[in-house]
Structures are given as structure tokens and as C-alpha cells.
Amino acid sequence: MKITDVKAIIVKQPEISMIGDGSQDTVVIKVMTDEGITGIGEVDSSPYVVKSIVESPASHMVCMGLRDIIVGEDPFDVEKIWYKMYNLANYYGRRSAAIHAMSGIDMAIWDILGKKLGVPVHKLLGGAFRDKIPAYCSVLMPDNEDEIKRIADTYLPQGYTGIKFGWGALGQSDKRDLELVKMCRKAMGDDPQLMIDVGMVWRDVKSAIRLCKEFEQENVYWVEEPFTPDDLEAYKRLTHSVDMRISAGEQVGTMFEFNELIAGCGIDIIQPDISRCGGITIAKKVIDMAYLHKIPVIPHAFKTGILMSASLQVIAAAPNALWLEYCCQETVLSKNLVKKHFAIDDKGFVNIPQKPGLGVEIDEEVLKRYEVK
Ligand code: MG
Questions:
Q1: Which domains does the chain have, with CATH numbers?
Q2: Nearest 5°: CA angle at 272, between 78 and 139?
Q3: Annotated catalytic residue: which of 60, 122, 300, 341?
Q4: CA 197 / ligand 1 centre spacing (Å)
Q5: Which residues 6+ apart lie within 8 Å of 309 measured at CB?
Q6: Which pLDDT score is estimated for 334?
Q7: How far apart are CA 84 and CA 98, in angstroms?
């Protein structure tokens, strides 16, 4: 089998708001083969940058667009293809958007392999440790108590065993962050797990230490991404100073960066985003790295059903998976881009897809309706 073409399709809701909601647009990747099998993937990044990275004509031998790098390759050489993309995109790549674009292509190649062999991707990753996973509800942090209460009252009865409030109103001041966390706990009651995603806006380690200790009193399960991914020293000081679980990982890609966070910073939970970290090929290695350090893997996912299916395939094959992040922001794409978006049962579980490949099908009408030409 040979790869014959790669398409990067930008899909976008009509109006974009400047809020921390990545499900307002996306890039759908399609990798075509000479056997008529098409693999699908998704990239959580700047869509226009990703499209350029995929479609750019070659400048020279280590500065090629990703499509030119992989056309003609056999999808079964998925690991070799990953390193080929990484090496031949060296001049503009190595981190960030180039790794994001590679992630979508890698995801699509794994989809091809599963479809060709008639098995779900988790079979190719070594088999399933589970056939369902508990989901936590992931939403933006509102700036008022009524909206926090509305979220708790809407999602907890649906079965979610926890809610993560992130970005949004957080980061205005330490005092306000603590007030918001107390509102969340009050609205949710004592039992459901509460997670806080700081969205990289804390700047001061001493304040972060103090706030994490306050959050412990509210029984916060983890504090996510307090700092930017370059603030490695801040992460080290924080994880060594508090009992609170500190999570991170959604912004980073390649084994090098995950090693810095897991082994170098003592992170308690690692959150690779399959559409950014380097794809399923790298996520599989991150699972093993995390396993060595006895920490759980909870993939970051705040996009559409394509990324959710890839996360579920990886979660199925991970001995140390704990939870599925379920993006509860309602955009025209978040639940409609794939047919039969994943539902949670009344105990808060989502089933692992069992159909060949990633196990989801794009709704081509929705794709066409929101495609940006
Ligand atoms: Mg996050």
C-alpha cells in the first residue's frame, strides 16, 4: 500500500470568539492511499499554519512540506514515516506547529492501518486494558456563581464523576481564583472530583504554592498547567513544594519535551494531546515514560469527535489511563463533525470504539458546510 495524497481541510464555525475554546475551528487531515483507504486525523493548532506546513513545496532536503515527505510511503512504516517527517521538516519544525501537523498525519496513518486490517487501533497498540473509561466534564471557568451552578447542575446529573473548570475567568488575581474554586466546590457538593486548569496564567511560584495549598482545602484533585511549558524551573519548584497533584503536557510534543516534564519536573499527571504531541506514535511512548514514573496519563482533548476517538484508542491501550477529557463546550463542530458522537452512560463512562481504525466516521455534510476554502 502507498500513500498517494494528503489533504489539510480547515473547518470553522461562522464566528470565532477570543476565548480559550479550541473547538471553534479545526483542521481535518485526510491521508489517501492507492488501495482506496482514506485515513482521518485532526490537528489542534493554528489551522492556517498547519495547512501551510502540510502543503508547502520543498525548499531543500531538510525543509520540505509534510505531504511531499510522505507521498509514496507505505503506511505500515508508520514509525519510520514519523522520523522522516521530523528530520525533513527540520528547518521549520522540531516543535510546536510542525509537530501538531505531524500528529494529525500520524493519527490518520494509524486509522488507515486499522481499516486495512479490520481492527480498532488499540489492537495495533498492544490490546485493550479496558472497554470503557470514566469521563470528566471539561468546561471554561465562568466569572459568576450562577453560571458555575448551572454547569454543575447540568453535567453532574448526566453521570460525569468530575468537572474541570479551566481558563476563562481564572488568573485575574489570587483572591479571585480562590473565590471561584470555592464557588465550584459549593456548587458541586463534596463528592464529585474538581479539577482546575489554570491555563498557564500564574506567573509567580510562591503565589502558586500558596494557592495550591488553599485549593487542597477545597479537595481539588489536580491543578493543571499553572505555567507556560517553558517555565520548567517553576514546575520543578512547585511540584517539590506541594502535595497537590500538578498536571501538564497538552502544549508539548516530542519525546524530548515529555521527558523534561515527566522525569525533569516531577509532574503528577501527564496530558499528551494526540493531535499535538506527535500523534499516536508519540503518545504510545509517553504512556511508557509515565508508567516508569508511576503517573497516570489523561490525554488532553478539546476538539471534535475525531480527536476524542484517537484519545479513546490510546486510553484503551494504556495500563495507566485514568480518565477521558470530555469537551462539553457546545460548538457546531465539537459534537457534530463525526456521525454518532460519543455519549456517556449514566455511570459516567464512555465506550472505547470497536470499529476498524479510529472507529469514527466524518459527517461529510457538516465538513462541507463549515469548510473554509
Ligand atoms: Mg488544559
A1: 3-119 (3.30.390.10), 124-363 (3.20.20.120)
A2: 135
A3: 300
A4: 5
A5: 338, 342, 353, 358, 359, 360
A6: 85
A7: 13
* The C-alpha cell that represents 57 in the structure block: 513545496
- Parallel, antiparallel, or unpaired for β 132-140 and 349-351? antiparallel
Q: For 217-250, how does the pLDDT look when each residue is reduced to its tens digit (9 = 90+)?
A: 999 999 999 999 999 999 999 999 999 999 999 9
Please give the single-letter amino acid code of residue 143: D
Name the strand (E) or helix (H) holding 294.
Answer: none
What's the pTM? 0.96
Distance from the CA of 69 to the center of ligand 1, in angstroms? 31
**Distance of alpha carbon 230 from alpha carbon 10, whole angstroms:** 29
Instruction: Give the ranges where the chain is alpha helix by DSSP (H).
Output: 47-55, 66-70, 78-88, 97-117, 121-124, 145-155, 174-188, 205-217, 232-239, 254-259, 265, 280-292, 305-316, 364-370
Whether 122 sits among the annotated catalytic residues: the reply is: no
Q: How many angstroms is it from 9 CA to the middle of ligand 1? A: 25
pLDDT, tens digit (0-9, with 9 covering 90-100), for 148-178: 999 999 999 999 989 999 999 999 999 999 9
Q: What φ, ψ does residue 236 adopt, rounded to 5°?
A: -60, -50
Q: Give dist(CA 319, CA 317) in Å, integer.
A: 7
From ligand 1's centre to the CA of 175, what distance in Å? 21
Instruction: Give the strand pairing for 38-43 and 25-33.
Output: antiparallel
Q: How far apart are CA 357 and CA 119, in angstroms?
A: 6
